[in-house]
Amino acid sequence: MEYIYASLLLHSAKKEITEDAVKGVLSAAGVEVDEVRVKAVVAALKEVNIDEVLKNATAMPVVAAPAAA
Amino acid sequence: MEYIYASLLLHSAKKEITEDAVKGVLSAAGVEVDEVRVKAVVAALKEVNIDEVLKNATAMPVVAAPAAA
Amino acid sequence: MEYIYASLLLHSAKKEITEDAVKGVLSAAGVEVDEVRVKAVVAALKEVNIDEVLKNATAMPVVAAPAAA
Amino acid sequence: MEYIYASLLLHSAKKEITEDAVKGVLSAAGVEVDEVRVKAVVAALKEVNIDEVLKNATAMPVVAAPAAA
Amino acid sequence: MEYIYASLLLHSAKKEITEDAVKGVLSAAGVEVDEVRVKAVVAALKEVNIDEVLKNATAMPVVAAPAAA
Amino acid sequence: MEYIYASLLLHSAKKEITEDAVKGVLSAAGVEVDEVRVKAVVAALKEVNIDEVLKNATAMPVVAAPAAA
Amino acid sequence: MSLAQERELPKWKVDEVSEIEEKLRNSKTLIIVNIEGFPADKLHEIRKKLRGKAEIKVTKNTLFLIAAKRAGLDTQKLESYITGSNAFIFSNENPFAISIFLSKFKLKRYPMPGDKADEEVVIPAGDTGMTAGPILSTFGKLKVQTKVQDGKVHVIKDTVIAKPGDPIPAEAVPIIQKLGIMPVYVKLKLKAAYHDQLIIPVSELEINLDNYVAMISEASRNSLALGVEIAYPVPEVLKLTLGKAFMRATALAGEAGFLTPETADAVLSRAVTKAYALASSISGKVDLGIQVPK
């Protein structure tokens, strides 16, 4: 999850999630950086509306109630 | 949440969560570090069994909201 | 909800929830205190096992309400 | 949770959540104030849309999970 | 629901739910009273253990899957 | 709960919830009216979107009704 | 009916009209009941049960209408109900109370061929009192095991021959009757009530108590919800209000990332939930080397 936490940290600090930024954060945490993974994560997150995802995630774990027939 | 994500990043990378480590990660992310908050977070986490908390957090079922009937 | 938050603050700080204590907290928060309401809240809380209520509140999974059939 | 209750009390009373205000409320409740925590809570809450969080927290009815159908 | 609220008000005030009492409450609320409905409500509620129903309604955590109407 | 029932009766009958209206209903039910409480309830309800509250309340899964004896 | 016709009525009819008129004058509530096919002995049972609350009387429609007119009832409103065979219930009680009362007791009768069972039909173990003979083959058909003892048919064990809703086998009818089993319910078919010059049709007269229970529950839930919203200071409401305040505090701590040992659960859970949500949003495209809980 390090790559995700690093990305969330950047997002939360209102910084852009770039390869360099993610690498910087991971290195500072003493994590050995996997270049390919950084590229993949950054590219994938570009296509995601992170705020939207987080907003929905904060709606606490929601268990589906049985649909009324 | 930056302080939390930085701490979780360290925890996830199996590094100790110290004030210096947290500050380092935050700085790398370009966050202006508030010494007091770092102290507060690191002190509080010392009293918490993070693995236990995370286990419980992920044990919670995360299910999409039921479609309204 | 001010009266409730004040009461929970006292409870959380392991102080007794008395009329004077609640009034003191509310005043400190700049709330104009309604004597009658304080009396009513304190009297009603005497009949409630707050620890029990809070325990259940956390234990309760949050379930989305199904649309009423 | 004292710091949170104190903050919610202030918010609910439509007062600004400042370090002094939080300290004042906590002192009135007989809580020994931890400067670091006060600073931390005030700083953390500045980054949050409290009304939004409260709305989402309580919009959901709280019920026990029904037995899986 | 006016007839139900009127009846619950009487019940809560430990008054007998009679036709006259329900009519009196409804009239005081400015509701045009339907004699037949009053009679139906009064007769039906005589057969219902209101305290029991209220107790169950409060015991919100215990929820059965909603019966299809 | 008399004051709440009286208020909901008025709301349900599409009447305005005023101090006089609530007092009238309570008196008709034989309840000795507490002026201060009436004031408090009426004032508090002014700040609430009752329809919204009821919508959320009834969206709750229906508690299994005990069979009427 | 004209006065001339009335004068021609035989004395018993004149007496009956007077009697009904008297009952109508003394009763606030009249309920008209369809008794077509209703067993006479069951009507007698109902009469006994109603004693002290109401009287039930069977009479001819023509005589009833004469009496009703004389008693000052609005016969125009009644006429459409006065067809077929009717009984009339006279009472001073709330018509709904009578209707509920009637719905509460179950009258049972012996089955007739073609009836469905309203309750389980069990042929009990033991001596049936029936003389052994051709009847044995009927028991056989019903798959009831028997033996003969002292010339009588004995059933070996309790045997269900029909479940509620099942048709009762025609050949079982005489046996069931002999054993005194009444698995079929009879219910008076109410048509309407007449009360205070008003007709209450059966659709309104028959009350489903479950609906009232549901309405009270709803009213109660509404009241509690509203009470919580304004922190109405009574214990039953405050319990819920405290829970709500606590959940709000937890949510706020979690969202703000205000970490103390007490709030650690809320804060870390929230952060992790968010992290997993984000991870799962890209999990199809990136191998994160982790398991994303679904």
What labels would you give this structure?
heteroheptamer; A: 69 residues; mainly alpha; Arc Repressor Mutant, subunit A; 4 helices; disordered C terminus; G: 294 residues; alpha+beta; Alpha-Beta Plaits; Molybdopterin biosynthesis moea protein, domain 2; 3 domains; 5-stranded antiparallel sheet; 3-stranded antiparallel sheet; 12 helices; 12 strands; flat
Return the structural class of chain G.
Answer: alpha+beta
**Cα-based radius of gyration of chain A, to the nearest Å:** 15 Å
Sheet with the most strands of chain G? 5 strands, antiparallel
Topology, number of strands of chain G: 12
Which regions of chain A have little confidence, pLDDT < 50, spanning 5+ residues?
A: 59-69
Mind telling me the C-alpha Rg of chain G? 34 Å
Tell me the number of structural domains of chain A: 1
CATH fold category name of chain A: Arc Repressor Mutant, subunit A
What's the overall geometry of chain G? Answer: flat
Average pLDDT over all residues of chain A: 82
Find the CATH topology of the largest domain in chain G: Alpha-Beta Plaits
Count of individual domains of chain G = 3
Morphology of chain A: globular
3D structure, described in words:
The complex is a heteroheptamer, with six copies of chain A (69 residues) and one copy of chain G (294 residues). Chain A is mostly helical. Chain A has helices at residues 2-12, 19-28, 35-46, 50-57. Chain A has a single domain (2-57), classed as Arc Repressor Mutant, subunit A (Orthogonal Bundle). Chain A is globular. The termini of chain A are far apart. By secondary structure, chain G is an alpha+beta fold. Chain G folds into three domains: 3-110 and 186-207, Alpha-Beta Plaits (2-Layer Sandwich); 121-181, Molybdopterin biosynthesis moea protein, domain 2, CATH 3.90.105; 211-281, no CATH class. A five-stranded antiparallel beta sheet of chain G has the order 2-3-1-11-12. Chain G has a three-stranded antiparallel beta sheet with strand order 6-8-7, with helices on one face. In chain G, a hairpin with a 2-residue loop joins strand 7 and strand 8 (152-155). In chain G, 41% of the residues are buried. At the E-F interface, helix 1, helix 2 and helix 4 of E face helix 1 and helix 2 of F.
